[in-house]
Amino acid sequence: MDINLIEAADRRLEGHVRRTPLLSSPFLDEIAGRRVLVKPECLQHTGSFKFRGGWAAITALDPEQRARGVLATSSGNHAQGIAKAAAAHGVRAVIVMPSDAPEIKIANTRALGAEVVLYDRATEDRDLLAADRIEADGLSFIPPFDHPQVIAGQGSVGLEIAAQAQEEGVTEGDVLVCCGGGGLTSGIALALEARAPGLRPRTVEPEGFDDFARSLDEGRICRNPATSGSICDAILTPEPGRLTFPVVSRLAGPGLVVSEDECLRAMALAFARLRIVLEPGGAAALAAALFRPEEIAGEAVIAVATGGNVDPAVFRQALDRHG
Amino acid sequence: MDINLIEAADRRLEGHVRRTPLLSSPFLDEIAGRRVLVKPECLQHTGSFKFRGGWAAITALDPEQRARGVLATSSGNHAQGIAKAAAAHGVRAVIVMPSDAPEIKIANTRALGAEVVLYDRATEDRDLLAADRIEADGLSFIPPFDHPQVIAGQGSVGLEIAAQAQEEGVTEGDVLVCCGGGGLTSGIALALEARAPGLRPRTVEPEGFDDFARSLDEGRICRNPATSGSICDAILTPEPGRLTFPVVSRLAGPGLVVSEDECLRAMALAFARLRIVLEPGGAAALAAALFRPEEIAGEAVIAVATGGNVDPAVFRQALDRHG
């Protein structure tokens, strides 16, 4: 994994990806006690940064692989990113999703043209199910984070942040990233290392699912005790990836942890101050920027708002509590 | 009023305005039966396009005028645009607002540093109140739409649409604009006339407040029977402006009218499909794009989503009914 792979993915994304702006509000700056710049990947195609990695992975396949199709496992955002990128290239996409994934994510993945295979988290083995389909149909597996091209695609966010931060006069400080398996964080970390070495990536996770924070602290991969049971469904993973952890471990600062309620509060503030829609897992970095000022370095902080695919009932909850 | 004034305003906005992207979703295209491109000015500074006109007007003042300050009348979005532009230039801003304006708009205008003067729509004369303050303090009056520099600033939206539509391969079709007094519509109309003559501006108004639609139909300025009583507060005006109407009349197609419920439905769809927050008046153009397909020409339609300053209770209503 290096910057060349990210730059190559970025060139393949040109003209297809949305280059999201940096948003800000004096009201958020006041809460945080420093400038807050938000990279709204909720405005990306399919509502999350995952479109980038999906596009990068699909476009890296050779013609034979494209003809046979791809399989992905995902609770929803990777699913939609792969589905849209595959459809754009006429590639068959089979997505294995847990049956308790947010309804909107399952419905959207199907509507984008993918074949969705649901499984029960409690009674079925996802990896076995996926392996069977892959073998039977000769599909190429595109995992949600531990894959060089997926990391490279997500890294395009880091290239944009490096350029946009410089335009804003920000050359030092923390870049907060909502973190599941670490695909986005590792891609951003590699991009910043090459293009904006004064910007330091930081993982942000929900309480109880802070595998990266603990792993970074202990210097080895640690697992979460549970893999479901949080409204931050987009960033729940059992443990850091084998490819992503070494990169994040080498380049990132200590991991940050926020509560579910802080994510809901950040959603309500993003609604009122930035007029963007975030899902709980996509609001974790903004929550840390606003509510963990003492754990953050620099006069400005950049928060990646990773996704906005949220069921209306959950969004209403954020407005009810904090609107 | 001509393109030169708009181009000059656009140059003064450079580096200060947010150049908003064009957003889209295959799900919206399906509803509309054609491509739908959305210009999300809810992402603009202060949450609406009004920042553009405010900045253009403030930067057009001479040093003596700036030293004395400005006065604006507004139900909220123009207020915030003026407040922020004035604060950036160290200019005193007095804003006369109705006491029943949305709370968030009053609070934000104050927080942005403006002096807010509230008046009672039923018992007080706004224009008399404003005239007294203007005379007493030597303030420059910046009205919400009928002002050459305000129209020029709003016209920068049209310059961006002309360039972005061409990038998207769209050279013919309708550009739908949520319309109050016609400042934005007339500015966009002049920009499109010069830069993208195949794109035709169209006003969109809420039922019961369709002064532009009726005026365009009759070829003379017609008044609305009421000036309050709609959730589309941002685009309620008594009648088309004296400067704006001749421009819109010369360049725009017939006016479109949507219901309040259609605005709420468009808000819910913008939430789910574009992950942006719209206020009812800011969603009128998208509502027309989605729900009035038979009244629209072209293979693609561009809808300007003019603002996103909405009280949480109203947004919840959109999600409750249509989420």
Automatic annotation (TrEMBL), chains A, B:
| Sorted UniProt keywords | Lyase, Pyridoxal phosphate
According to the UniProt entry, the coiled-coil residues are none
User: Can you say what this protein is called?
Assistant: Threonine ammonia-lyase
User: What are the protein's GO molecular function terms?
Assistant: L-serine ammonia-lyase activity; pyridoxal phosphate binding; threonine deaminase activity
Q: Record the organism.
A: Brevirhabdus pacifica
Q: Which InterPro entries match?
A: Ser/Thr_Dehydratase, Ser/Thr_deHydtase_PyrdxlP-BS, TrpB-like_PALP, TrpB-like_PALP_sf
For the keyword Lyase, the answer is yes
Listed GO biological process terms: isoleucine biosynthetic process; L-serine catabolic process; L-threonine catabolic process
